[in-house]
């Protein structure tokens, strides 16, 4: 079992600590779904990063994610909105957690992203893993298109992202979770796009990428994982996607 000790420290900065909140309401469906997705997408990133040894790592929509970068041996860049990166740094400092990575503040998509990464030391000729997990749903389809098209990366690079399936392709748990999130009052970060795997594959091709694999998040772990869970349940809503630059 992997324990993300940094996440525990980061959570301790908040009152109530998100960890304590989840432990207090372990079976609450929205928390179960959010917890499951966060764990599974991080596992996906770690697995594919280990299997595809790229020289550099760029986290798009980095948020408070310190888990994925922690084991990466090369340089890391963190892209998120300016206020979020500043907040992240403050939270990491307060929690005593290393804020690994060079901040590159941007509201995405932005055609200036790659030039800014170069200014921040990124080598555009070296294979790079771009991890954009938990991001696509906060962008419209057109914004996703612009972002994907702006990522012109050298051969050997890898893009990892996740998308939300439309209701028609989700299961009841997925639809309930989506409905609960969309109904949240005062939601400042609404979900703006959802893709079928086929629709996303087409978008990737349009934007210069080749889909390498697409898997339902529940398949990120063996069936035994689900059998051993007291609260987590497989949910069909999130698709984990890996793509490579078109050769
Ligand atoms: C759900 S969090 C995901 C954090 C982390 N990547 C993960 O996998 O847990 C979404 C992150 O995307 C960022 N984000 C949303 N829209 C964005 C935009 N237009 N430009 C840059 N970052 C954005 C948010 O600030 C937030 O940090």
Describe this structure in words.
- The chain is an alpha/beta fold and 247 residues long.
- It has helices at residues 5-12, 18-24, 29-51, 67-70, 82-95, 113-119, 141-150, 172-182, 197-206, 223-227; strands at 56-60, 76-80, 102-105, 128-132, 158-164, 209-216, 238-245.
- A 7-stranded mixed β-sheet has the order 3-2-1-4-5-7-6, sandwiched between helices.
- Helix 1 (5-12) crosses helix 5.
- 34% of the residues are buried.
- It contains 10 helices and 7 strands.
- The protein has a single domain (5-245), classed as 3-Layer(aba) Sandwich (Rossmann fold).
- The longest helix is centred in the first third of the chain and has 23 residues, at 29-51.
- Helix 5 links the parallel strand 2 (76-80) and strand 3.
- The chain binds S-adenosylmethionine.
- The site of S-adenosylmethionine (SAM) has 16 residues, from helix 3.
Features:
247 residues, alpha/beta, Rossmann fold, 40% helix, binds S-adenosylmethionine
List the SSEs and their pairings.
Elements (H helix, E strand, L loop, with lengths): L4 H8 L5 H7 L4 H23 L4 E5 L6 H4 L5 E5 L1 H14 L6 E4 L7 H7 L8 E5 L8 H10 L7 E7 L7 H11 L14 H10 L2 E8 L6 H5 L10 E8 L2
Parallel strand pairs: 1-2, 1-4, 2-3, 4-5
Antiparallel strand pairs: 5-7, 6-7
Helix pairs in contact: 1-5
Bound molecules: S-adenosylmethionine.
């Amino acid at each position: 079992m992997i324990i993300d000790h940094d996440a525990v420290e980061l959570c301790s900065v908040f009152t109530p600590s998100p960890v304590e909140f989840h432990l207090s309401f372990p079976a609450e469906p929205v928390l179960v779904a959010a917890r499951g997705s966060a764990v599974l997408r991080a596992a996906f990133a770690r697995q594919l990063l280990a299997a595809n040894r790229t020289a550099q790592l760029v986290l798009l929509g980095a948020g408070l994610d310190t888990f994925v970068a922690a084991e990466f041996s090369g340089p890391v860049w963190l892209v998120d909105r300016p206020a979020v990166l500043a907040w992240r740094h403050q939270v990491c400092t307060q929690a005593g957690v290393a804020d690994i990575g060079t901040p590159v503040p941007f509201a995405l998509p932005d055609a200036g992203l790659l030039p800014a990464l170069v200014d921040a030391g990124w080598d555009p000729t070296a294979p790079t893993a771009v991890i954009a997990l938990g991001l696509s749903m906060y962008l419209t389809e057109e914004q996703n298109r612009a972002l994907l098209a702006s990522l012109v990366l050298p051969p050997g690079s890898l893009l990892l992202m996740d998308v939300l399936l439309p209701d028609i392709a989700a299961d009841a748990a997925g639809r309930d979770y989506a409905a609960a999130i969309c109904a949240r009052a005062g939601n400042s970060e609404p979900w703006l796009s959802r893709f079928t795997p086929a629709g996303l594959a087409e978008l990737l091709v349009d934007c210069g990428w080749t889909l390498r694999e697409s898997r339902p998040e529940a398949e990120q772990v063996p069936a035994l994982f689900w059998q051993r869970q007291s609260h987590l349940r497989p949910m069909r809503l999130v698709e984990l996607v890996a793509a490579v630059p078109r050769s």
